[in-house]
Amino acid sequence: MKTRRSVLSGLGAAALAPLLPNLSQANTRSLTLSMPPLLDATQSGRFFLNAQAGKINFRDQSDSDTWGFNQSFLGPTLRMSNRGVTAAKVTNTLEEAISVHWHGLVVPGDVDGGPHQLVAPGQTWAPELSLDQPPTTAWYHSHTHGRTAEQVQKGLAGVLQLTDELDEERGLPTTYGVDDLTLVLQDRRFDRSGRMSYALSMPDRMMGFLGDTMLINGQVGATAGVPKGIVRLRLLNGSNARIYSLVMSDERPMHLIGTDSGLLDAPIALDALTLAPGERYELLVDFGDGSDVSLLSGQNTNEPMMGGRMMGRGQTSGPPFVVLPFTVDTSAKASITQLPSDLGGSRPSMALSGARSRALTLDMAMGPGMMMRRNSKQFSINDQAFDMNRTNFDVKLGQLERWTVSTNMMMHPFHIHGVMFQVLSENGKLPRSQNIGWKDTILIDGQAEILMRFEHPASESLPYMYHCHILEHEDGGMMGQFTVS
Protein backbone atom coordinates (compact mmCIF):
# COMPACT_ATOMS: atom_id res chain seq x y z
CA MET A 1 0.00 0.00 0.00
CA LYS A 2 1.32 3.42 -0.91
CA THR A 3 2.51 5.82 1.78
CA ARG A 4 3.08 9.55 1.54
CA ARG A 5 6.81 8.97 1.18
CA SER A 6 6.38 6.49 -1.69
CA VAL A 7 3.99 8.80 -3.53
CA LEU A 8 6.15 11.90 -3.16
CA SER A 9 9.37 10.05 -3.98
CA GLY A 10 8.36 10.09 -7.63
CA LEU A 11 8.71 13.87 -7.75
CA GLY A 12 12.45 14.40 -7.64
CA ALA A 13 13.25 17.85 -8.98
CA ALA A 14 10.67 17.58 -11.75
CA ALA A 15 7.43 19.50 -11.81
CA LEU A 16 4.21 17.68 -11.03
CA ALA A 17 2.20 16.34 -13.90
CA PRO A 18 -0.72 18.81 -14.07
CA LEU A 19 -3.26 16.00 -14.35
CA LEU A 20 -2.85 12.45 -15.63
CA PRO A 21 0.09 11.47 -17.83
CA ASN A 22 -1.72 11.35 -21.17
CA LEU A 23 -3.55 14.64 -20.77
CA SER A 24 -3.41 16.93 -23.78
CA GLN A 25 -2.26 20.41 -22.90
CA ALA A 26 -4.78 21.98 -25.28
CA ASN A 27 -7.03 22.97 -22.39
CA THR A 28 -5.23 25.59 -20.34
CA ARG A 29 -8.23 27.36 -18.81
CA SER A 30 -8.27 27.99 -15.07
CA LEU A 31 -11.60 27.56 -13.32
CA THR A 32 -12.81 28.02 -9.77
CA LEU A 33 -14.28 24.72 -8.61
CA SER A 34 -18.01 24.78 -8.05
CA MET A 35 -20.02 22.40 -5.90
CA PRO A 36 -22.89 20.25 -7.14
CA PRO A 37 -26.21 22.04 -6.54
CA LEU A 38 -27.50 21.37 -3.03
CA LEU A 39 -30.95 19.72 -2.84
CA ASP A 40 -31.88 19.92 0.84
CA ALA A 41 -34.71 17.59 1.84
CA THR A 42 -34.20 17.78 5.61
CA GLN A 43 -37.26 19.97 6.16
CA SER A 44 -39.56 18.89 3.33
CA GLY A 45 -38.85 15.17 3.68
CA ARG A 46 -39.01 14.68 -0.09
CA PHE A 47 -36.91 15.15 -3.22
CA PHE A 48 -37.23 14.69 -6.97
CA LEU A 49 -34.63 13.37 -9.41
CA ASN A 50 -34.97 13.47 -13.18
CA ALA A 51 -32.57 11.29 -15.19
CA GLN A 52 -31.93 13.26 -18.36
CA ALA A 53 -29.62 13.61 -21.35
CA GLY A 54 -27.44 16.66 -21.89
CA LYS A 55 -24.35 18.07 -23.51
CA ILE A 56 -21.23 19.38 -21.80
CA ASN A 57 -18.19 21.11 -23.27
CA PHE A 58 -15.56 19.85 -20.85
CA ARG A 59 -12.41 21.06 -22.60
CA ASP A 60 -13.30 24.07 -24.77
CA GLN A 61 -13.58 21.84 -27.82
CA SER A 62 -16.59 19.76 -28.91
CA ASP A 63 -19.64 19.00 -26.81
CA SER A 64 -19.89 15.57 -25.17
CA ASP A 65 -23.16 13.67 -24.91
CA THR A 66 -23.81 13.17 -21.20
CA TRP A 67 -26.42 12.03 -18.70
CA GLY A 68 -27.26 13.43 -15.31
CA PHE A 69 -29.89 13.89 -12.62
CA ASN A 70 -31.67 17.26 -12.76
CA GLN A 71 -28.83 18.57 -14.94
CA SER A 72 -26.61 17.58 -17.85
CA PHE A 73 -23.90 15.70 -15.93
CA LEU A 74 -23.89 14.10 -12.47
CA GLY A 75 -26.55 15.03 -9.95
CA PRO A 76 -27.23 17.38 -7.04
CA THR A 77 -25.96 16.77 -3.54
CA LEU A 78 -28.96 15.33 -1.70
CA ARG A 79 -29.10 16.31 1.96
CA MET A 80 -31.42 14.19 4.09
CA SER A 81 -32.14 13.58 7.74
CA ASN A 82 -30.40 10.48 9.08
CA ARG A 83 -33.54 9.59 11.08
CA GLY A 84 -37.08 9.33 9.77
CA VAL A 85 -38.70 8.91 6.37
CA THR A 86 -37.76 10.75 3.17
CA ALA A 87 -39.92 10.29 0.07
CA ALA A 88 -38.01 10.08 -3.22
CA LYS A 89 -39.35 10.37 -6.75
CA VAL A 90 -37.11 9.34 -9.67
CA THR A 91 -38.26 9.90 -13.25
CA ASN A 92 -36.39 8.44 -16.22
CA THR A 93 -36.50 10.57 -19.39
CA LEU A 94 -33.66 8.65 -21.04
CA GLU A 95 -34.11 6.12 -23.83
CA GLU A 96 -32.97 3.10 -21.79
CA ALA A 97 -33.75 1.65 -18.39
CA ILE A 98 -31.76 2.75 -15.35
CA SER A 99 -31.84 2.12 -11.62
CA VAL A 100 -30.84 4.31 -8.68
CA HIS A 101 -28.96 2.57 -5.86
CA TRP A 102 -28.61 4.49 -2.59
CA HIS A 103 -25.02 3.43 -1.91
CA GLY A 104 -24.42 3.66 1.84
CA LEU A 105 -28.05 3.87 2.96
CA VAL A 106 -29.04 1.02 5.27
CA VAL A 107 -32.52 0.39 3.87
CA PRO A 108 -34.62 -2.69 3.03
CA GLY A 109 -34.06 -4.47 -0.26
CA ASP A 110 -37.35 -3.25 -1.74
CA VAL A 111 -36.07 0.35 -1.83
CA ASP A 112 -32.33 -0.33 -2.27
CA GLY A 113 -32.34 0.42 -6.01
CA GLY A 114 -30.36 -2.56 -7.25
CA PRO A 115 -30.47 -4.17 -10.70
CA HIS A 116 -33.91 -5.75 -10.06
CA GLN A 117 -35.52 -2.30 -9.64
CA LEU A 118 -35.25 -0.86 -13.12
CA VAL A 119 -36.92 2.42 -14.02
CA ALA A 120 -37.99 2.09 -17.64
CA PRO A 121 -37.97 5.05 -20.06
CA GLY A 122 -40.82 7.38 -19.22
CA GLN A 123 -41.50 5.75 -15.85
CA THR A 124 -41.22 7.09 -12.30
CA TRP A 125 -40.05 5.19 -9.19
CA ALA A 126 -41.20 6.54 -5.82
CA PRO A 127 -39.54 4.75 -2.87
CA GLU A 128 -39.85 5.89 0.73
CA LEU A 129 -36.49 5.80 2.49
CA SER A 130 -36.87 5.09 6.20
CA LEU A 131 -33.52 5.84 7.82
CA ASP A 132 -32.01 5.19 11.23
CA GLN A 133 -28.23 5.34 10.92
CA PRO A 134 -25.34 7.65 11.81
CA PRO A 135 -24.82 10.88 9.83
CA THR A 136 -22.49 10.22 6.90
CA THR A 137 -21.53 10.99 3.31
CA ALA A 138 -23.04 8.41 0.94
CA TRP A 139 -23.87 8.50 -2.75
CA TYR A 140 -26.35 7.37 -5.39
CA HIS A 141 -25.73 5.90 -8.83
CA SER A 142 -27.28 3.73 -11.51
CA HIS A 143 -26.92 -0.02 -10.92
CA THR A 144 -28.27 -1.59 -14.12
CA HIS A 145 -26.70 -5.01 -14.64
CA GLY A 146 -24.41 -5.03 -17.67
CA ARG A 147 -24.82 -1.25 -18.08
CA THR A 148 -23.65 0.16 -14.74
CA ALA A 149 -20.15 1.10 -15.94
CA GLU A 150 -21.27 3.08 -18.98
CA GLN A 151 -24.26 4.69 -17.26
CA VAL A 152 -22.09 5.94 -14.38
CA GLN A 153 -19.35 7.01 -16.80
CA LYS A 154 -21.91 9.11 -18.69
CA GLY A 155 -22.91 10.85 -15.46
CA LEU A 156 -25.60 8.98 -13.51
CA ALA A 157 -24.20 9.54 -10.02
CA GLY A 158 -24.38 12.05 -7.18
CA VAL A 159 -23.58 12.57 -3.47
CA LEU A 160 -25.85 11.97 -0.46
CA GLN A 161 -25.35 13.70 2.86
CA LEU A 162 -27.13 12.29 5.91
CA THR A 163 -27.24 14.82 8.72
CA ASP A 164 -28.44 15.12 12.30
CA GLU A 165 -27.76 18.89 12.12
CA LEU A 166 -25.37 18.73 15.09
CA ASP A 167 -22.09 19.34 13.23
CA GLU A 168 -21.71 22.90 14.55
CA GLU A 169 -21.87 21.52 18.10
CA ARG A 170 -19.14 19.05 17.12
CA GLY A 171 -16.94 21.92 15.96
CA LEU A 172 -17.06 20.83 12.30
CA PRO A 173 -17.20 23.12 9.25
CA THR A 174 -20.75 23.28 7.88
CA THR A 175 -20.95 25.97 5.17
CA TYR A 176 -21.59 24.12 1.92
CA GLY A 177 -19.08 24.99 -0.77
CA VAL A 178 -17.06 27.32 1.49
CA ASP A 179 -15.45 25.31 4.31
CA ASP A 180 -17.44 22.10 3.71
CA LEU A 181 -16.47 20.84 0.25
CA THR A 182 -18.09 17.94 -1.62
CA LEU A 183 -15.52 16.44 -4.02
CA VAL A 184 -16.46 13.80 -6.60
CA LEU A 185 -13.23 12.32 -8.03
CA GLN A 186 -13.51 10.78 -11.51
CA ASP A 187 -11.09 10.06 -14.33
CA ARG A 188 -12.37 10.22 -17.90
CA ARG A 189 -11.05 9.90 -21.44
CA PHE A 190 -11.52 12.36 -24.29
CA ASP A 191 -10.97 11.91 -28.00
CA ARG A 192 -9.08 14.33 -30.25
CA SER A 193 -12.19 16.45 -30.63
CA GLY A 194 -12.55 16.81 -26.87
CA ARG A 195 -15.53 14.46 -26.58
CA MET A 196 -15.78 12.17 -23.58
CA SER A 197 -15.17 8.60 -24.73
CA TYR A 198 -15.94 5.15 -23.36
CA ALA A 199 -14.40 3.05 -26.13
CA LEU A 200 -13.13 0.03 -24.19
CA SER A 201 -10.05 -1.94 -25.15
CA MET A 202 -9.62 -5.56 -24.09
CA PRO A 203 -7.34 -4.49 -21.20
CA ASP A 204 -10.04 -2.01 -20.11
CA ARG A 205 -12.58 -4.82 -19.96
CA MET A 206 -10.20 -7.04 -17.99
CA MET A 207 -8.68 -4.54 -15.56
CA GLY A 208 -11.22 -1.73 -15.46
CA PHE A 209 -11.52 1.59 -17.26
CA LEU A 210 -8.82 4.20 -16.57
CA GLY A 211 -9.15 7.73 -17.88
CA ASP A 212 -6.43 10.20 -18.83
CA THR A 213 -8.09 13.37 -17.50
CA MET A 214 -9.09 14.26 -13.96
CA LEU A 215 -12.59 15.58 -13.27
CA ILE A 216 -13.66 17.03 -9.92
CA ASN A 217 -17.42 17.55 -9.66
CA GLY A 218 -17.55 17.13 -13.43
CA GLN A 219 -15.03 19.94 -14.07
CA VAL A 220 -11.63 19.79 -15.78
CA GLY A 221 -8.75 22.01 -14.64
CA ALA A 222 -10.56 23.63 -11.68
CA THR A 223 -9.00 25.02 -8.50
CA ALA A 224 -10.79 24.97 -5.13
CA GLY A 225 -10.84 28.24 -3.22
CA VAL A 226 -10.76 27.82 0.56
CA PRO A 227 -10.74 30.14 3.59
CA LYS A 228 -7.75 30.51 5.88
CA GLY A 229 -8.49 27.86 8.45
CA ILE A 230 -9.81 24.32 8.73
CA VAL A 231 -11.78 22.93 5.78
CA ARG A 232 -13.84 19.76 5.56
CA LEU A 233 -13.30 17.60 2.47
CA ARG A 234 -15.96 15.00 1.68
CA LEU A 235 -14.23 12.70 -0.81
CA LEU A 236 -16.06 10.28 -3.10
CA ASN A 237 -14.26 8.02 -5.56
CA GLY A 238 -16.80 7.97 -8.37
CA SER A 239 -14.33 6.54 -10.89
CA ASN A 240 -15.03 3.24 -12.66
CA ALA A 241 -11.75 1.60 -11.63
CA ARG A 242 -8.99 4.03 -10.60
CA ILE A 243 -7.61 3.71 -7.07
CA TYR A 244 -6.19 6.98 -5.72
CA SER A 245 -3.31 7.16 -3.24
CA LEU A 246 -3.79 10.67 -1.87
CA VAL A 247 -1.31 12.98 -0.17
CA MET A 248 -0.94 16.73 0.26
CA SER A 249 1.85 18.21 -1.85
CA ASP A 250 3.57 19.88 1.13
CA GLU A 251 3.11 16.81 3.35
CA ARG A 252 0.70 18.50 5.76
CA PRO A 253 -1.48 15.95 7.60
CA MET A 254 -5.01 15.04 6.58
CA HIS A 255 -7.20 14.46 9.63
CA LEU A 256 -9.66 11.62 9.09
CA ILE A 257 -13.04 12.30 10.72
CA GLY A 258 -15.39 9.95 8.90
CA THR A 259 -15.46 6.71 6.93
CA ASP A 260 -18.13 5.31 4.57
CA SER A 261 -20.80 4.89 7.22
CA GLY A 262 -20.27 7.55 9.85
CA LEU A 263 -18.10 9.85 11.89
CA LEU A 264 -15.27 8.62 14.12
CA ASP A 265 -14.99 9.37 17.81
CA ALA A 266 -11.96 11.62 17.29
CA PRO A 267 -9.82 12.79 14.34
CA ILE A 268 -6.92 10.60 13.17
CA ALA A 269 -3.93 12.25 11.48
CA LEU A 270 -3.02 10.53 8.21
CA ASP A 271 -0.09 11.20 5.91
CA ALA A 272 -1.70 9.26 3.03
CA LEU A 273 -5.15 7.94 2.15
CA THR A 274 -6.06 5.17 -0.29
CA LEU A 275 -9.41 5.86 -1.97
CA ALA A 276 -10.93 2.99 -3.97
CA PRO A 277 -14.01 3.15 -6.23
CA GLY A 278 -17.19 3.46 -4.18
CA GLU A 279 -15.42 4.56 -0.98
CA ARG A 280 -16.04 7.84 0.82
CA TYR A 281 -13.91 9.53 3.46
CA GLU A 282 -14.26 12.82 5.31
CA LEU A 283 -11.12 14.78 6.13
CA LEU A 284 -10.22 18.01 7.89
CA VAL A 285 -7.28 19.91 6.36
CA ASP A 286 -5.81 23.00 7.99
CA PHE A 287 -5.16 25.84 5.52
CA GLY A 288 -4.41 28.29 8.35
CA ASP A 289 -0.87 29.04 7.15
CA GLY A 290 -2.32 30.72 4.05
CA SER A 291 -0.21 28.67 1.63
CA ASP A 292 -1.58 27.27 -1.60
CA VAL A 293 -1.26 23.50 -1.85
CA SER A 294 -2.45 20.59 -3.99
CA LEU A 295 -4.01 17.23 -3.33
CA LEU A 296 -1.92 14.64 -5.20
CA SER A 297 -2.27 11.00 -6.11
CA GLY A 298 0.24 8.35 -7.07
CA GLN A 299 -0.37 6.41 -10.26
CA ASN A 300 -2.84 3.54 -10.33
CA THR A 301 -0.95 0.28 -9.72
CA ASN A 302 -3.88 -2.12 -9.74
CA GLU A 303 -2.94 -4.52 -12.53
CA PRO A 304 -3.07 -8.34 -12.49
CA MET A 305 0.11 -10.35 -12.46
CA MET A 306 0.76 -13.24 -14.85
CA GLY A 307 3.90 -15.28 -14.54
CA GLY A 308 5.42 -12.55 -12.37
CA ARG A 309 4.79 -9.90 -15.00
CA MET A 310 2.35 -7.03 -14.61
CA MET A 311 -0.33 -6.81 -17.31
CA GLY A 312 -0.02 -3.02 -17.47
CA ARG A 313 -1.41 -0.32 -19.74
CA GLY A 314 1.33 2.26 -19.40
CA GLN A 315 -0.39 4.18 -16.59
CA THR A 316 0.97 2.36 -13.56
CA SER A 317 4.20 4.27 -12.97
CA GLY A 318 5.45 7.81 -13.13
CA PRO A 319 5.23 10.95 -11.01
CA PRO A 320 2.26 11.83 -8.82
CA PHE A 321 -0.41 13.87 -10.56
CA VAL A 322 -2.50 16.76 -9.28
CA VAL A 323 -6.00 15.72 -8.26
CA LEU A 324 -7.06 19.18 -7.07
CA PRO A 325 -5.18 22.44 -6.41
CA PHE A 326 -6.28 24.62 -3.48
CA THR A 327 -5.82 28.37 -3.30
CA VAL A 328 -6.31 30.14 0.05
CA ASP A 329 -8.30 33.34 0.28
CA THR A 330 -6.46 34.95 3.17
CA SER A 331 -9.17 37.59 3.52
CA ALA A 332 -11.83 34.96 4.16
CA LYS A 333 -12.14 34.06 7.83
CA ALA A 334 -12.77 30.38 8.47
CA SER A 335 -15.46 29.41 10.96
CA ILE A 336 -13.24 26.69 12.45
CA THR A 337 -9.57 27.23 13.31
CA GLN A 338 -8.96 24.38 15.75
CA LEU A 339 -9.44 20.65 15.32
CA PRO A 340 -12.33 19.25 17.36
CA SER A 341 -11.37 16.64 19.94
CA ASP A 342 -14.73 14.85 20.19
CA LEU A 343 -16.64 14.08 17.00
CA GLY A 344 -19.47 12.23 18.68
CA GLY A 345 -19.10 9.23 16.37
CA SER A 346 -17.83 5.76 17.10
CA ARG A 347 -15.47 2.97 16.17
CA PRO A 348 -17.26 -0.37 15.78
CA SER A 349 -16.46 -2.99 18.39
CA MET A 350 -18.90 -5.86 17.93
CA ALA A 351 -18.50 -9.15 19.79
CA LEU A 352 -17.89 -12.20 17.58
CA SER A 353 -20.06 -14.51 19.65
CA GLY A 354 -22.67 -16.26 17.51
CA ALA A 355 -21.38 -14.95 14.19
CA ARG A 356 -21.90 -17.13 11.12
CA SER A 357 -18.80 -17.43 8.93
CA ARG A 358 -18.69 -17.20 5.12
CA ALA A 359 -15.73 -17.25 2.74
CA LEU A 360 -15.84 -15.37 -0.56
CA THR A 361 -13.18 -15.31 -3.27
CA LEU A 362 -13.17 -12.65 -5.98
CA ASP A 363 -12.16 -14.57 -9.10
CA MET A 364 -10.81 -13.60 -12.52
CA ALA A 365 -10.36 -16.02 -15.41
CA MET A 366 -6.70 -15.73 -16.39
CA GLY A 367 -4.61 -17.62 -18.88
CA PRO A 368 -4.79 -18.21 -22.66
CA GLY A 369 -7.75 -16.42 -24.24
CA MET A 370 -8.76 -14.79 -20.94
CA MET A 371 -9.89 -11.53 -22.56
CA MET A 372 -12.18 -13.35 -24.99
CA ARG A 373 -14.21 -15.07 -22.26
CA ARG A 374 -16.86 -12.39 -22.02
CA ASN A 375 -19.68 -14.83 -21.34
CA SER A 376 -17.87 -17.62 -19.50
CA LYS A 377 -16.90 -16.71 -15.95
CA GLN A 378 -14.42 -14.03 -16.89
CA PHE A 379 -15.37 -12.52 -13.51
CA SER A 380 -17.04 -14.36 -10.66
CA ILE A 381 -17.33 -14.80 -6.90
CA ASN A 382 -16.70 -18.29 -5.52
CA ASP A 383 -16.47 -19.42 -9.15
CA GLN A 384 -20.05 -18.31 -9.86
CA ALA A 385 -20.65 -15.48 -12.31
CA PHE A 386 -23.65 -13.29 -11.48
CA ASP A 387 -27.03 -14.65 -12.51
CA MET A 388 -30.09 -12.43 -12.04
CA ASN A 389 -32.19 -15.57 -11.49
CA ARG A 390 -30.00 -17.23 -8.83
CA THR A 391 -29.94 -16.38 -5.13
CA ASN A 392 -26.48 -17.15 -3.79
CA PHE A 393 -27.48 -17.50 -0.13
CA ASP A 394 -29.92 -16.40 2.56
CA VAL A 395 -29.08 -14.49 5.72
CA LYS A 396 -31.31 -14.67 8.78
CA LEU A 397 -32.74 -11.32 9.86
CA GLY A 398 -30.72 -10.05 12.83
CA GLN A 399 -27.90 -12.54 12.17
CA LEU A 400 -24.32 -11.55 12.92
CA GLU A 401 -22.08 -12.58 10.00
CA ARG A 402 -18.30 -12.80 9.66
CA TRP A 403 -17.10 -12.80 6.05
CA THR A 404 -13.59 -13.57 4.86
CA VAL A 405 -13.12 -11.97 1.44
CA SER A 406 -10.06 -12.88 -0.64
CA THR A 407 -8.45 -12.12 -3.98
CA ASN A 408 -5.17 -13.36 -5.44
CA MET A 409 -5.00 -11.57 -8.80
CA MET A 410 -5.44 -7.83 -8.28
CA MET A 411 -7.06 -5.47 -5.78
CA HIS A 412 -10.87 -5.30 -5.74
CA PRO A 413 -13.06 -2.77 -3.89
CA PHE A 414 -15.80 -4.88 -2.32
CA HIS A 415 -19.25 -3.44 -1.50
CA ILE A 416 -22.22 -4.96 0.34
CA HIS A 417 -25.72 -3.53 0.07
CA GLY A 418 -28.02 -2.93 3.03
CA VAL A 419 -25.47 -2.99 5.83
CA MET A 420 -22.48 -1.30 7.40
CA PHE A 421 -19.62 -3.42 8.67
CA GLN A 422 -16.62 -3.56 10.96
CA VAL A 423 -13.22 -4.44 9.48
CA LEU A 424 -11.69 -7.07 11.76
CA SER A 425 -8.42 -7.63 9.94
CA GLU A 426 -6.52 -7.08 6.69
CA ASN A 427 -4.12 -9.86 5.69
CA GLY A 428 -4.10 -11.20 9.23
CA LYS A 429 -3.20 -7.85 10.79
CA LEU A 430 -5.20 -5.12 12.47
CA PRO A 431 -7.03 -2.93 9.94
CA ARG A 432 -5.33 0.14 8.59
CA SER A 433 -6.13 3.39 10.41
CA GLN A 434 -8.39 4.54 7.59
CA ASN A 435 -10.54 1.40 8.03
CA ILE A 436 -11.24 1.45 11.77
CA GLY A 437 -14.61 3.17 11.35
CA TRP A 438 -17.89 1.84 9.97
CA LYS A 439 -17.58 0.82 6.32
CA ASP A 440 -19.71 -0.48 3.46
CA THR A 441 -16.91 -0.76 0.87
CA ILE A 442 -13.38 -2.05 1.42
CA LEU A 443 -10.39 -2.49 -0.87
CA ILE A 444 -9.41 -6.16 -0.80
CA ASP A 445 -5.66 -6.45 -1.30
CA GLY A 446 -5.16 -10.09 -0.40
CA GLN A 447 -7.70 -10.87 2.33
CA ALA A 448 -9.95 -9.02 4.74
CA GLU A 449 -12.30 -10.15 7.51
CA ILE A 450 -15.46 -8.11 8.09
CA LEU A 451 -18.26 -8.36 10.65
CA MET A 452 -21.84 -7.15 10.25
CA ARG A 453 -25.42 -7.63 11.39
CA PHE A 454 -28.28 -7.59 8.88
CA GLU A 455 -31.25 -5.70 10.31
CA HIS A 456 -33.42 -5.11 7.24
CA PRO A 457 -35.19 -7.66 5.02
CA ALA A 458 -34.47 -8.33 1.36
CA SER A 459 -36.75 -10.64 -0.60
CA GLU A 460 -35.91 -13.12 -3.36
CA SER A 461 -37.44 -10.79 -5.94
CA LEU A 462 -35.60 -7.72 -4.58
CA PRO A 463 -32.38 -9.06 -3.00
CA TYR A 464 -29.26 -7.30 -1.79
CA MET A 465 -26.06 -7.33 -3.87
CA TYR A 466 -22.42 -7.90 -2.97
CA HIS A 467 -19.85 -7.13 -5.64
CA CYS A 468 -16.58 -5.67 -6.82
CA HIS A 469 -16.91 -1.91 -7.34
CA ILE A 470 -14.63 -1.85 -10.35
CA LEU A 471 -17.65 -1.32 -12.55
CA GLU A 472 -16.38 -3.33 -15.52
CA HIS A 473 -15.85 -6.28 -13.15
CA GLU A 474 -19.33 -5.85 -11.66
CA ASP A 475 -20.93 -5.78 -15.12
CA GLY A 476 -18.81 -8.76 -16.14
CA GLY A 477 -20.12 -11.04 -13.38
CA MET A 478 -18.14 -10.33 -10.16
CA MET A 479 -21.35 -9.93 -8.19
CA GLY A 480 -23.73 -12.04 -6.14
CA GLN A 481 -27.07 -11.56 -4.44
CA PHE A 482 -28.63 -12.68 -1.18
CA THR A 483 -31.87 -12.49 0.73
CA VAL A 484 -32.44 -11.49 4.35
CA SER A 485 -35.43 -13.10 6.02
Structure commentary:
- It contains five helices and 36 strands.
- It has 485 residues and is mainly beta.
- β14 and β15 form a beta hairpin.
- The longest helix has 7 residues, at 148-154.
- Residues 22-28 and 306-310 have low confidence and may be disordered.
Average pLDDT level: 91
Percent range for β-strand residues: 35-45%
The biggest sheet, with number of strands, parallel, antiparallel or mixed sense and barrel status, is: 8 strands, mixed
Shape: globular
Q: Helix proportion of residues, in percent?
A: under 10%
Number of helices: 5
Question: First CA to last CA: what distance?
Answer: 38 Å
Query: What structural category do the secondary elements indicate?
Result: mainly beta
Number of beta-strand segments: 36
Low-confidence stretches: 22-28, 306-310
Q: How big is the Rg?
A: 21 Å
Multimeric state: single chain
Summarize this structure as a short list of keywords or feature phrases:
single chain; 485 residues; mainly beta; 8-stranded mixed β-sheet; 6-stranded mixed β-sheet
How is this fold's topology laid out?
Layout: H1 4-8, E1 31-32, E2 38-40, E3 46-56, E4 64-69, E5 77-81, E6 83-92, E7 101-103, E8 124-125, E9 128-132, E10 136-141, H2 148-154, E11 157-163, H3 167-170, E12 180-190, E13 196-197, H4 202-207, E14 213-216, E15 219-220, E16 222-228, E17 230-237, E18 244-248, E19 254-259, E20 262-270, E21 273-275, E22 280-286, E23 293-298, E24 305-306, E25 309-310, E26 321-333, E27 356-364, E28 379-381, E29 393-395, E30 400-406, E31 412-416, E32 422-426, E33 441-444, E34 447-453, E35 464-468, H5 471-476, E36 479-484
Parallel strand pairs: 1-16, 2-5, 3-6, 5-11, 12-17, 16-26, 27-30, 29-36
Antiparallel strand pairs: 3-4, 6-8, 6-9, 7-10, 10-11, 12-13, 12-14, 14-15, 17-22, 18-21, 18-23, 19-20, 19-22, 23-26, 24-25, 27-28, 30-34, 31-33, 31-35, 32-34, 35-36
